[in-house]
Amino acid sequence: AQSVAQPEDQVNVAEGNPLTVKCTYSVSGNPYLFWYVQYPNRGLQFLLKYITGDNLVKGSYGFEAEFNKSQTSFHLKKPSALVSDSALYFCAVTGGGNKLTFGTGTQLKVEL
Amino acid sequence: DTAVSQTPKYLVTQMGNDKSIKCEQNLGHDTMYWYKQDSKKFLKIMFSYNNKELIINETVPNRFSPKSPDKAHLNLHINSLELGDSAVYFCASSPSGTTTDTQYFGPGTRLTVL
Q: Which candidate in B88, B103, B104 is best for mutational testing of the A interface (most A CBs within 10 A)?
């Protein structure tokens, strides 16, 4: 069975500072990893995914994520946070079939 | 130019009623999904269809029945609604339903059962 853990319910960061939202995964076989963002009362928006190749994946809105196979992690990062980045972030994995298994979400709050 | 659309956006109903949620995608994708997001924001897949054929059917009560009249539409019908069915239901689609596909989500339908 595949699973994803997001150890932090909430991450607070000051605008302009770098941000990291953590994600670790468990899957048999090759992991295919995704990050989505959910703004209040909105659907999920795709940010980026790792399939194969370069461990650093660049995505939408200046976000990037680093795949680390030895640590089974896929942390989401941004060099300089904006107040508008405040939202709920989900990490997800598919390991077999097309079933996306989501983490519990991390609420990001960026303050002035 | 809404890619994945759902109707209605909000649905408030009484226990025991039957209701439907509709989903349409104009992306030309072959695969569509239904997800449930509970009050703690936890997201779980319910069903997926590929070209009108049921592919994934998670442990969901029989009261939930998906129907795909064509590959651009996936509707969700719920019989005998219960309080625990209150949630946000998201439709999604992906190009071909492979493991590496990106899934694109609709705006969600907030169902409240009184």
A: B103
Count of residues in chain B: 114
pLDDT at A28 over 90: no
Contacts of A34 in chain B (CB under 8 A): 102
Which residue in chain B has the smallest CA separation from A104?
B42
CA distance A99 to B43: 12
User: What is the identity of the amino acid at B56?
Assistant: I
Which tokens belong to A36? 């989505």
Could you tell me if B23 and B3 are in contact, meaning their C-beta atoms sit under 8 angstroms apart? Answer: no
Enclosing H/E stretch for B67? strand B64-70
Bridge partners of residue B19, in order along the sequence:
B78
Q: Which of A50, A77, A51 has its CA nearest to residue A63?
A: A77
- Chain B nearest-CA residue for A6: B42
Low-confidence ranges of chain B (pLDDT < 70): 1
Tens digit of each residue's pLDDT (9 = 90 or more) over B11-27? 999 999 999 999 999 99
Which amino acid is located at A66 in the chain?
E
> Between chains, do A94 and B99 touch, taking CB under 8 Å as contact?
yes
Give dist(CA A98, CA B56) in Å, integer.
Answer: 9
DSSP SS3 for A60:
helix
Q: Do A105 and B41 touch (CB under 8 A)?
A: yes
Q: Which residue of A has its CA nearest to B35?
A: A100
What is the model's pLDDT at position A97? 66
CB < 8 Å to A57, chain B: none
